[in-house]
Structure formats: structure tokens, C-alpha cells
# Entry
Amino acid sequence: MIYIKDLAHYENKDVTLKGWVFNVRTSKNLVFIILRDGSGLCQSIVSKDDVSEEVWNAALQLTQESSLSLTGNVKKDDRSIGGYELHVSDLEVYQIANDYPITPKEHGVEFLMENRHLWLRSKRQWAIMRVRNHIIFTIHRFFQERGFIQMDAPIFTGNAAEGTTTLFETEYFDEKAYLTQSGQLYGEAMALAQGLIYTFGPTFRAEKSKTRRHLTEFWMIEPEMAFYDLKMNMDLAEEMLREIVSSVLDNCKTELEILERNTTFLENARQPFKRMSYTEAVDMLKSQQTANMLQEMEESRIKEKDELSKEQEEIKAEYGQAKKGRKFRIDARLKEIRARLDDIEEDLRNIPVWKESALNFEWGNDFGGSDETILTMQFDVPIMVYGYPAEVKAFYMKRDPEDDRIALGVDVLAPEGYGEIIGGGQREDNLDVLLAAIKKHELPEEAFKWYLDLRKFGSVPHSGFGLGLERTVCWICGLKHVRESIPFPRMLGRLYP
Ligand code: 4AD
Ligand code: MG
# Structure
């Protein structure tokens, strides 16, 4: 098989490509087919004078997403998509697709979600899935190169890891079981066997949160390291994220271009991350600096809204008299303006809420999505917030020996408002303290018997973290919603397709 991505090796040679019609356009004696084969796009030209009547007639039948094979000569053409063109001599149809539902016109996101199984073929979704794949590959490489052992944690579990409120319950013969929220506890057991391990698997949260950050099923990478303290844990998380971002920047240029990703913020992640304590983060939230930033943001959005509305009026007025080409550009620009105005409206609705939330934030609370958004807007690099109030964190977090109110946990917040992509910390390694925490959280002691054994038989200081794959993809690709970062998202109200 020859793939479009490899056409450079076949200049002036005859090849056969197999794929689907991404787009087809007919003029008098020519049919222009943009062929999509999964590896790329290639403009292919069928000329009536160069092919048999049979081939010409077959070309005239083609529709969007029909499947076919094309044979022809590869010609270099810098203006053409992908840089090469196919001058077709033969064509074989696998199937003619009728009324493909996703046309080049604009579709609402609900419609696209209903057609997710087809939407995956579009250019943007293609690019996102490729970046996702590259991130997965880089994560495995990162850990494998450092001697970490990948372990698979169970998906049916008998106990809660991250608290009892977000569990999916299911029947397990005569018992109740839960879909795992995190592989961490099992990862800890394996770390005491192997030293350095990581899990990479699906996790489930029955949160009834309908936000752009929440899925009910998502993939998590959870390294766990014996003899690591919080600082070593943070250093590893930073090194891993830097490697992921650098590798995507170096290897996914085409994809980032398709996504029109502004890569400045990604480039910044090659710099050292900002580290601050929870207490410093709270002070920052409540500061005059934050209030000023939000004020300025609001003013600049209002100004931009006025300018865009004015431009919108002007080009709309011009439309009636405009020539065909100009009309086309006006339509495109109007679409851009509408999208931007929607974003501005959303910001203008949010800013007063953010202001309130930041100003009234009290030490001891957990950060909400908007608090994280505000913090990340003040730095160009990812932020690592460490030392959270123990009360808001999971039972297994070790307390700071110097301040009992504080847990040795860390969250990593991605810039540009993306917020938390990593949660982790040092684990409580003392049997009695851990037992007391399990009781305090009203967790069933019996179910944690095996976990407590880890503190009875060769307990050591250890740490780890969990990286949410979809939130990472979302940030790196610059997506607005986590639903586009996974092939078939599972969210509140979505179990199909
Ligand atoms: O902060 P979380 O809940 O931490 C844990 O599960 C720990 N056991 C990890 C560990 O220390 N081994 O989740 C970790 C990450 C979050 O930072 C976020 O990126 C992602 O998992 N995540 C979600 N992603 C999508 N949808 C959700 N509902 C998510 N909940 C968490
Ligand atoms: Mg968290």
C-alpha cells in the first residue's frame, strides 16, 4: 500500500491510492477529487481526454465520502494541498455514499456529536486524534526510558479511591462493585514491588458536572514512585509535561497548523514552571492585581465587541452589491466575527462571577474552575500549586510535618485558563495516621485492609500523581471543550454513539 504522506518518494511515478472523497468538484472536462486516505489529503485530477469513457463516467458519479481507489501519476505541485497532485489514469469505486450528513457548511455541535462516528473524518478531528496519539506515545516513551514499569490497575473495584460521591456502582455477581476512579491505590502496591511504576488506563467519575472539563470516562496516567517526596514528585511531573509539549511541537506541526493553534504558550512550557503554595495562590486570587486584571479584561472585551459589531454592520451593508468572490470573503469573515462575539459574550457573563468568586475566596476552600482560570491567566507557563488544606484533599495525602493543616499535595494548572491537568502528592505512610484518616472520611475500613498492609510491611515514603489525558489534549490542541479530545466522549447526558 502507498499512502499520501509518502508521495514525495513517488514523484513522476504511477501509484494507486485507496481512500475516500473528501471533496469533489466538476468542471467541463475535469473532475477534481480531494482524496483522503487517513494519512493525508491529495488533490487528484481526472481529465476527460486522458481516461476511458468508463473511468470518466465513474468520476462523474463521485460524492463526498464515497470510497475508491485511484491510479495515476504523481506530480509535484506546491500550490496543491500536501504538495503533490495525482494525474488520474484509472479509478475504481468501492461504494458511492449518498447524502453524507456532514457537509462543508456549518453544523451545530449537538449535530456533530450525534454524528461523532462520522465527524472523526473531518480535518480538525483528524488532527486532534493524531496529537492525542502522539501524546500517548510520548508518555510511554518518557516513563519507559526512565525504568518505570507499566502496570494495569483493575477497573472493577471494591473500594473508593477519591471519595464516595462520584462512584459508578455496578453489580458484581452477588456483590456491589464500583468502576475505578483511579488506579493509584493499586499503583502504590506495585510501586512497593517494582520501585517505579505507572498506570495508563480508563477511569470513571459519576460527577454530575456539565462543564467543558468533565467527562464521566477518561484516561489517566498515574506514576507512583517509592522513596520520592513531594519535591521529587513535582520535578518529575514538570519534566514529563515539558517532554510532552516539546515532542508535540516538534512532531505534530501539520496537526497544530490545522488546529490553528497559537503555539506561543506551548513554547513557554519549555521554560521552568511557576511554583506557588496554596496560601500564595489564595493571596493572589484576592489581590488588587487580580481585580485589576479582570477589570482590564472586561474593558478590552467591551471595546472589541463594539469594534466587531461595527464591522459586522458595515460588511453586511456591503453584501448586496458585492461580487461573488467578495461575497465569499464576507461570509467567511461574518462567520469568524460571530464565533468571536460568542466567546466575548461568554467572557462578559463570566467575568463578574470570577470577580466575586476570587474576592470572596476563603483559605481552606478548594479552587473552583473559575479560580483556576484566573490564576492561570496571570502566568505564561503552567503553575504548580502545592500544599493544599488537608480538609479538601483525599484521605491518603500525607500531612506537612511542619503544619498539620496542610497536605503535601500538588495540582498542575495549564495556562490560558485551562486549569488542573494533574493532581498528586506524597502519600501518608504511617499506619496509624492513615487508619485515622480512613475513619474520619467514613470509608469502609474492611475494604482498605489490603491497602493498610502496605504500611505494615516495609512502608516507605512514596509519591505519585495523575495526569488527565483528555484535559492535556484539550490544552495542547487549544480546544474549547474536552468532548473533542477523546474519540467517543462519555459525559453527563451522552452515551451514544
Ligand atoms: O485530581 P484527581 O482526582 O487525582 C487522582 O485521581 C489521584 N488519584 C491521582 C494520583 O495521585 N495518582 O485526578 C487527576 C487528574 C485531574 O488533574 C484531571 O486532569 C483528570 O485526572 N480528571 C478528569 N478529567 C476529565 N474528566 C473528569 N471528570 C476528571 N476528573 C479528573
Ligand atoms: Mg484533582
In short: The longest strand covers residues 14-26.
